[in-house]
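Write out this protein's structure.
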Amino acid sequence: MKTLENKKIIALVESEFEDLELWYPLLYLREEGGQVDVVGPKAKEKYIGKYGVPVISDFAFTDIQAADYDAILVPGGWAPDKLRRYPEVLAMVQYMDDQKKPIGQICHAGWVLISAKILKGRKVTSTPGIRDDMENAGAIWLDEAVVVDEHIVSSRRPPDLGAYMKAFTAVLTAK
């Protein structure tokens, strides 16, 4: 049996996502048996990463219910600045937080959690470029490859992806 068999994960997407921060988790979690649905503003739409690697969304934000999923992933890049403008995205992240379901965020993805107003008092990391934003939202920022605070798993950048996915998987399998 694969580690994540019977687990459903939302992978959020918008244009200019950080290619590795979407694709590495997507492939890793699928190899572990998880069902990872790529969810963006539109269904069956092509979104292009910062470095030109495309992905096609499975569903639109409005096509799914967060309650049907076990976890959510937010990639970095410039996509988080767009993702945080969708009320549906913020509602999904808030729901996952309320239900204590795993939320994965890497690099600039912290912007989405900031806009969802779920970081006060939480230990997290991110790319150092948004450290002030994270702290101004009430988070306790740590310069570590991966930080786990209950169900929130955060990471800094692509070199930390291995540690990030191991920690995210551990939190997801503990649920």
